[in-house]
Design brief:
This protein is mainly α and about 170 residues long. It has helices at about 5-25, 30-45, 55-80, 95-110, 115-125, 130-135, 140-160. The chain folds into two domains: about 1-85, Rna Polymerase Sigma Factor, Chain: A, CATH 1.10.1740; about 90-170, Winged helix-like DNA-binding domain superfamily/Winged helix DNA-binding domain (Arc Repressor Mutant, subunit A). Pfam families: Sigma70_r2 (PF04542), Sigma70_r4_2 (PF08281). Keywords: DNA-binding, Sigma factor, Transcription, Transcription regulation. This is SigE family RNA polymerase sigma factor.
Length: about 170
Amino acid sequence: MSGHEGFTEFVAARGASLFRIAHLTCGSRDEAEDVLQSALEKAYRSWGRLHAGSDPEPYVRRIIVNTAISRARRRAILRIFLTDSPPDTPAPDSLTGVELRQVLITGLRGLPPHQRAVLVLRFFEDLTEAQTAEVLRCSIGAVKSQASKGLARLRALIGADLHEEELPHAER
C-alpha cells in the first residue's frame, strides 16, 4: 500500500475524531475546518517519514493543537487592538446535557489556547495526563497545572460549579 493510500485510510478512519479535537480546541466549526485542513496538509507532507508501525494519531493531534494555538495567538493580538472587553457568556442554571455542552464550548473559547488544549484532550478526548503531555510535548505537571487553572477559569467564565465528572467525555 502506498503512502497516499495509508494517509487516505487514516483520515477516513480518524477524521471525525480529529475534527472533534479541532472544533473543541478552536471553538467554531469554520475555524476547526481550516485548522484540520492545515494540520492534515502538514501531516501528509511528513507521512513518509512516520515510522510504518507507529500510530500517527498523536502526531496529527499535536499538529492540530499547535496550529489552533498559533491561530488563537494571532487572533488575540488582533483583538487587543480592536477591543478591550471580553465577550459575554451565558450563565448556566439547570441546563440539559446539550445546553451544558454548548455552554462549555462557549466557555472554552474564553480560555487561553494551552488551557483549552489541555481540557479538550483530557476531558473531551478522554486522554490520560501522560497522553496529553505527550501530545502537547510538555510535562505531566504542566498538564495538571493547566487543567487546574483551565477548570477554575472555565468555572468563572460560565458561572458554574463544575466538577471533572460533569464534563462530557468522548463517546467511545
